[in-house]
Design goal:
- By secondary structure, this protein is mainly alpha-helical.
- It has eleven helices and two strands, in the order αααββαααααααα.
- It has a two-stranded antiparallel sheet.
- The protein starts with a helix and ends with a helix.
- The mean pLDDT is about 85.
Length: about 270
Amino acid sequence: MSIAATLRSVPTGIPRSLRIFLTEARYEFIRLLRTRGFSLSVIGFPVVFYIFFGLIMNRGVTIHGVSVAKYTLATYSVFGMVGAALFGIGVGLAGELNAGWLELKRASPMPPLAYLLAKCSSAMAFGVIIVCLLCALGITAGHVSVTGAEVGHLLALTVIGVIPFACLGMVVALVVPFNSAPGFTNMIYLPMSFCGGLWIPIMMLPKVMQKFAFVLPTYHLSQLTLGVFGYASAGTPWSHWFGLLGFSLVMLGVASIAFHRLEKNS
């Protein structure tokens, strides 16, 4: 094939950009999947929690007519997708910033947005894997009754629900030094999960914590997820969507300020 024919075969414009985005997303997902310390902990943590607290310790238990196995299927799905976003983007981005990997990326012809979208789409993919595993466990081991429409709704929420926590992950990566990023992420992840009602139902928490939960994105996403099964306890879907949107915008603003400060000091 001549050089001219080769150049004509190279896609340009939108197809070229789409190809770059998809390639970057594919290799980012493969990289994370092959990093066993990451993939096993991010996927295994919510799955083990669900097996112990949703299927073994509370087997056949209902609270106010609500099946614990079905309730925790929704809340541990949120727990899993939040972990995938915070550790995949927050800790991962902090490590690459520390190693100078971003400098190399910026020198390449790849659009900067492809790098961030690849990390976000990888977190979404891990979230989908976690939700599918939890649904399979709930249906087979917990005899949870879930319709195909509910599973589809849950997966759609997983894809969209990762975005606010991806924004939070960017803030962590830009503000916290790499050596402190894993510990700092855990200090956000675990309390935010507990106070957002992901481990035990929000109505079982003290009143003061129930009021505090309104400022947490984990609470709003869990209420949307519980709403798929008809278990939402308070607020309308719109109030929860606005809560997640407001949190995302605040985090994007903080990330933008932190990034410009980093650029100025570099």
